[in-house]
Amino acid sequence: MARVFVYGTLKKGQPNYKHMINTAKGLAKFQGRGRTVEKYPLVIAGKYNIPYMLNIPGTGHHVAGEIYSVDDQMLQFLDEFEGCPDMYQRTLMSIEVVEWEGKGGAGEARAAAEGVVECFVYSTTTYPPEWVGLPYHDSYDSSGKHGLSYVLRESRD
User: Fold this and answer.
1) Which member of 38, 66, 80, 82 is catalytic?
2) How far apart are CA 55 and CA 89, in angstroms?
3) CA 100/CA 33 separation, integer angstroms
4) 16, 17, 79, 129: least buried by Cβ within 10 Å?
5) pLDDT of 53 above 60
6) What predicted TM-score, i.e. pTM, was given to this entire model?
């Protein structure tokens, strides 16, 4: 099982969460909530209002999200869903545990108790330069105050 940190539309209550609980796509077990140890710019961009974490460490905010343990099948689905490696790139990042529900072996419990876990994160280095000038968010909600509702894939032209 791999550990994945999601910060956008795949979180609970967000438009694409349905994929995280669809066992036909693989297994994803919620482990807890966290935030990036380093600061990153989280922007909402493009005509479909997609959240992107720009891979510019040290800029932006500590981004909040959810930690999941996923099997190989779900990881492969997520790679395809996230357009990896073209749109997003899957990289390991340090995530500070804010709240932990995960059940696992002693190693997992110890990592959570220490407060930091390594997770795969889908961020991007392939973005238009003007995105750096967009507002940075510390947390994503499709129906947030920003007024930039995410456009589901099935609703896109």
Assistant:
1) 82
2) 9
3) 7
4) 129
5) yes
6) 0.90
